[in-house]
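Two folds, back to back.
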Amino acid sequence: MKGNALGAAVGSAGQIGSFGTKGIWFEDAEETLAVELWYKFQVTDNISVTPAVFYIQNDNGFDDTVGGLVKTTFKF
């Protein structure tokens, strides 16, 4: 159907470090990787459903994060 769309994003989710005088943003902190993939289904002219999955790679001993969501949009 017209209006369907596929999208992806890759970027940094910030830096992980310990709190201190420089906050969480400092030179020896490791950057994290964030990836998202989504697809928008246009159900009708006024309704769309967008499932998405994301992944955030964490360093410094933190667990990686994987999640998902479903967004439904209604236009009036």
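---
second:
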Amino acid sequence: MIQKPVRNEARKRIHLRIRKKVQGTPERPRLNIYRSLQHIYAQVIDDTRGCTLVAVSSVEKGFPQGAGGNVAGAREIGKLIAQRALAKGIQKVAFDRGGYRYHGRIKALADAARESGLQF
């Protein structure tokens, strides 16, 4: 009997497939998203140097408790990542949804980042 993969294992497989196509360069770094049940994290990464340029998460000080697990919290993270990236001179990014479906918190974060000035 073939066993179905656990949901997170399937997501990781999908993410690897996406990563074959999406590479972060110095001109256009990769905007990576990770979400857990209670929090959401976003990083702008330059894959050629292997370093994180900008990072935002819902576990940072000053972020409302429990706001990372909902769409409103994801919107705030999207706005913050765009502000910090623009402050560092990053305007264009390659969006990496991390293997998650593009809806809910992922879509809210992406839309808020676009509205705040990031291009992808």
